[in-house]
Design goal:
Helix content is 31%, strand content 18%. It contains 8 helices and 8 strands, in the order E-H-E-H-E-H-E-H-E-E-H-E-H-E-H-H. Strands 1-8-7-6-5-4-3-2 form an 8-stranded parallel beta sheet. Helix 5 runs parallel beside helix 6. The chain is globular and about 45 Å long. The structure holds D-xylitol-5-phosphate and zinc ion. D-xylitol-5-phosphate (DX5) binds next to strand 2, strand 8 and helix 7.
């Protein structure tokens, strides 16, 4: 049975799969279609092979966006850029545990700047990395693809990991969001939610669909 948080599934379209020529229009359309937040993928060509966008783009989006900006940092030394991304208008900043030698310090800096802070685990990174940080984060993002590109296939090995994390969070009496990112579409979203996730990132399945509203409703639906 789905209860509590899982009754309120949030959909975060990843603008990486949007048409950048008309990014403003694409964002307005997913907002009108019911998106709960905008997922912004920041890649540096070091931690991941791809290079995407930085603070100036977040800043431009912030001027018009009507929903929160969920900024996923796939960069080395994220501590160097946290202030820039907060100043640009991020509402939630997530950092990969694989990139932080002083994870607790990085999460504290994010929260001190007044925004929500989250941590991200790659598919092969075990949950044990959350052991001394879980109580301090607003959200945990579990990757369901290896980060770097949109349009990859969902890795079902994340499902038992989501279940275990949901159990840990519930047992600790926490209210932490569980976000899942990579290859989510209307056919597999239900398994992700049933495992215990409550925030779904979706790039290509939303932006490559012909009807954003229908797709977002399907992603949110429990049937
Ligand atoms: C992958 C990114 C994802 C990606 C999701 O490294 O973190 O957010 O854009 O895109 P889809 O939904 O197409 O896998
Ligand atoms: Zn992402």
């Amino acid at each position: 049975m789905l209860m509590g948080k899982m009754d309120n599934i949030k959909i975060a379209p990843s603008i990486l799969s949007a048409d950048f020529w008309k990014l403003g229009q694409e964002i307005a359309e997913v907002e009108d279609a019911g998106a709960d937040m905008l997922h912004i993928d920041v890649m540096d060509g070091h931690f991941v092979p791809n290079i995407t966008m930085g603070p100036p783009i977040v800043n431009s989006i912030k001027k018009k966006a009507r929903i929160p900006l969920d900024v996923h940092l796939m960069i080395e030394n994220p501590e160097k850029y946290i202030t820039d991304f907060v100043d640009a208008g991020s509402d939630i900043l997530t950092v990969h545990v694989e990139t932080c030698s002083h994870l607790e310090g990085v999460v504290s800096s994010i929260k001190r700047l007044g925004v929500k802070g989250g941590v991200v685990l790659n598919p092969a990174t075990p949950l044990i990395f959350l052991d001394h940080i879980l109580e301090q984060v607003d959200m945990v993002l579990l990757m369901s693809v290896n980060p770097g590109f949109g349009g990859q296939q969902f890795l079902p090995s994340v499902l038992p990991k989501i279940e275990k994390l949901r159990e840990k969070i519930d047992n600790a009496g926490l209210n932490t969001d569980i976000q899942v990112d990579g290859g989510i579409n209307p056919s597999n979203c239900r398994s992700v939610v049933e495992a215990g996730a409550n925030v779904l990132v979706a790039g290509s399945s939303v932006f490559h669909s012909t009807n954003y509203k229908e797709t977002i409703a399907e992603l949110r639906s429990k049937k």
